[in-house]
């Protein structure tokens, strides 16, 4: 899968104000800013992102995904 394909899948299933994705085709690193993360602990945020990729994770099309998940307020307060 390409970075654009993964980003499109995530964005189609999760309201994202910002999404970055880099990787080598097997190992991916993403930063996602979403109001849907409000009130969720880190593990729930990650589960929410993994859920958007569903079968792509289970079939190993997306082998490894490192996630940094922020609410809009957290993102605004963080050094970019």
CATH uppermost class: Alpha Beta
Distance between the termini: 27 Å
Beta-strand percent range: 25-35%
Secondary-structure element sequence?
HEEHHEH
Named CATH topology = GMP Synthetase, Chain A, domain 3
Q: How many DSSP helices?
A: 4
Rounded to the nearest angstrom, the radius of gyration is 12 Å
Number of strands: 3
What is the name of the CATH superfamily?
BolA-like
Oligomer status: single chain
Strand neighbour order, sheet with most strands: 1-2-3
| Biggest sheet architecture | 3 strands, mixed
Look at the helices and sheets and give the structural class: alpha+beta
Spans of at least 5 consecutive residues whose pLDDT stays below 50 are none
Family: Belongs to the BolA/IbaG family.
Protein name: BolA-like protein
InterPro entries: BolA, BolA-like_sf, BolA/IbaG_stress_morph_reg
Question: In a nutshell, what does this entry contain?
Answer:
It is built from four helices and three strands, in the order αββααβα.
Describe what this molecule looks like in 3D.
The structure is a single chain. With 80 residues, the protein is α+β, with helices and mostly antiparallel strands. It has one domain (3-72): 2-Layer Sandwich (GMP Synthetase, Chain A, domain 3), CATH 3.30.300.90. The chain has helices at 3-13, 42-53, 55-58, 72-77; strands spanning 18-23, 27-33, 64-70. The model has no long low-confidence stretch (mean pLDDT 94). Strands 1-2-3 form a three-stranded mixed sheet. InterPro entries: BolA (IPR002634), BolA-like_sf (IPR036065), BolA/IbaG_stress_morph_reg (IPR050961). This is BolA-like protein.
